[in-house]
Amino acid sequence: MLARGGMHLPALANPSSLWILSPTKDSQILGYRRAYTAAGEVYSPSLQRKVARSFSELPGNWRTGWLNLFHFWQEGGFHNVHNIMIHKFQKFGPIYREKLGLYQSVNIINPEDAATLFKSEGNYPERFMVPPWMAYRDFRNKPYGVLLKKGEAWRSDRLILNKEALSLQMIDCFVPLLNEVSEDFVKRVQVQIGKSGRGRWTGDLTNELFRFALESVCNVLYGARLGLLQDLIDPEAQNFIDAVTLMFHTTSPMLYIPPSVLCRINSKTWRDHVQSWDVIFRHADKCIQNIYRELRLDRKSTKEYTGILSSLLVQDKLPIDDIKASVTEMMAGGVDTTSMTLQWAMFELARTPVVQEQLRAEIFAARQAAQGNMLKMLKAIRLLKAVIKETLSHWCLDW
Ligand code: HEM
């Protein structure tokens, strides 16, 4: 997903990466559904009857990396990446190999192939390591977080974080923090509608949802509000949001041009990238200091949940720098993923007013029945959950 130049890069593995493009309605029309051979050693029993091709036999343009990169940029680069990939799938089939600059990937489009891959990953899945993010940490001598770690180091951190971030029991803790932000967002929409005098509001939805997502994620992670939903944003919070935006913007070019080269020539992209991460990490430092101060002053009740960072610090199961690294990476991973999901869901709902009405009716009914109990309400909104799942299966959110 490319929200404000941002991205989330979950399904890529370096140096020979694997890209999964969600098959949209369009791509299915293009006829990619026929069975195909899987690449290399990764194939399901159903595919074993078919002949697997070796890495060097895969179709695709993977011999002329720099020329390919030049064409990629000519065709619009990251802003047009889905169309570029669709055309390549059309040309080479549902599994193709590619080289852009120094960066190699194998791209797949069929959900069965993605399932085969995920099933065969084992205990230590290979992830795309986001070279510029790693380069920053190496440059500043900071540890990697869960998004960038590998092997056993990744697994042990991940098991600790799973309990804090993914276990179902945590929903009870997250909901009040998320709800607080959501209510402010709804108020903001209502105020803007009121101000317009026309009964409607025309705004920059991408930007609004990005701010909403960042405010929500930060409230859950740091247990603190940034104030991004106000008309007048505190300069320090604005500095942080600008840094997150710039960090994402400067990541894209460094996916294909090695950060080490840009660092050596001290290019603006590299300098901006370093500066933006510095601001993001300083923000994490400040939050940690605040949490410690509150704990020292005994102002925080031990029963009150005040976010993932605070909880990890109190548990003391990870070194502080590792906590900081993972919380910062969760912040980077949780913003554009969620805001773009919402934006695509709204786009789909705008195209299907019937579902929109059903959804509205479901939410009103659930709200009335729940009488302010958000957890109860969440259990009763099955259509809303289906809309989000459907959106995620139709639209690739990585760019
Ligand atoms: C609709 C929203 C989201 C989507 C579609 C999404 C998608 C993904 C996917 C596909 C992966 C790769 C998982 C894997 O390969 O096993 C991933 C990893 C990750 N996501 Fe998300 N994500 C979303 C929201 C979030 C949020 C809200 C956060 C943080 C608060 C987050 C943080 C991360 C992190 C840290 C990883 C790396 C995990 C690891 O390597 O252990 N994501 N995401």
TrEMBL record:
<comment type="pathway">
    <text>Lipid metabolism; C21-steroid hormone metabolism.</text>
</comment>
<keyword id="KW-0479">Metal-binding</keyword>
<dbReference type="GO" id="GO:0005506">
    <property type="term" value="F:iron ion binding"/>
</dbReference>
<comment type="similarity">
    <text>Belongs to the cytochrome P450 family.</text>
</comment>
<keyword id="KW-0999">Mitochondrion inner membrane</keyword>
<keyword id="KW-0349">Heme</keyword>
<dbReference type="GO" id="GO:0071375">
    <property type="term" value="P:cellular response to peptide hormone stimulus"/>
</dbReference>
<keyword id="KW-0496">Mitochondrion</keyword>
<dbReference type="InterPro" id="IPR036396">
    <property type="entry name" value="Cyt_P450_sf"/>
</dbReference>
<keyword id="KW-0443">Lipid metabolism</keyword>
<keyword id="KW-0809">Transit peptide</keyword>
<dbReference type="GO" id="GO:0008386">
    <property type="term" value="F:cholesterol monooxygenase (side-chain-cleaving) activity"/>
</dbReference>
<dbReference type="InterPro" id="IPR002401">
    <property type="entry name" value="Cyt_P450_E_grp-I"/>
</dbReference>
<protein>
    <recommendedName>
        <fullName>Cholesterol side-chain cleavage enzyme, mitochondrial</fullName>
        <ecNumber>1.14.15.6</ecNumber>
    </recommendedName>
</protein>
<keyword id="KW-0153">Cholesterol metabolism</keyword>
<dbReference type="InterPro" id="IPR050479">
    <property type="entry name" value="CYP11_CYP27_families"/>
</dbReference>
<keyword id="KW-0472">Membrane</keyword>
<keyword id="KW-0753">Steroid metabolism</keyword>
<dbReference type="GO" id="GO:0020037">
    <property type="term" value="F:heme binding"/>
</dbReference>
<comment type="function">
    <text>A cytochrome P450 monooxygenase that catalyzes the side-chain hydroxylation and cleavage of cholesterol to pregnenolone, the precursor of most steroid hormones. Catalyzes three sequential oxidation reactions of cholesterol, namely the hydroxylation at C22 followed with the hydroxylation at C20 to yield 20R,22R-hydroxycholesterol that is further cleaved between C20 and C22 to yield the C21-steroid pregnenolone and 4-methylpentanal. Mechanistically, uses molecular oxygen inserting one oxygen atom into a substrate and reducing the second into a water molecule.</text>
</comment>
<dbReference type="Pfam" id="PF00067">
    <property type="entry name" value="p450"/>
</dbReference>
<keyword id="KW-0755">Steroidogenesis</keyword>
<dbReference type="GO" id="GO:0008203">
    <property type="term" value="P:cholesterol metabolic process"/>
</dbReference>
<dbReference type="InterPro" id="IPR001128">
    <property type="entry name" value="Cyt_P450"/>
</dbReference>
<keyword id="KW-0503">Monooxygenase</keyword>
<dbReference type="GO" id="GO:0006704">
    <property type="term" value="P:glucocorticoid biosynthetic process"/>
</dbReference>
<dbReference type="GO" id="GO:0005743">
    <property type="term" value="C:mitochondrial inner membrane"/>
</dbReference>
<keyword id="KW-0408">Iron</keyword>
<dbReference type="GO" id="GO:0006700">
    <property type="term" value="P:C21-steroid hormone biosynthetic process"/>
</dbReference>
<keyword id="KW-1207">Sterol metabolism</keyword>
<keyword id="KW-0560">Oxidoreductase</keyword>
<dbReference type="GO" id="GO:0034650">
    <property type="term" value="P:cortisol metabolic process"/>
</dbReference>
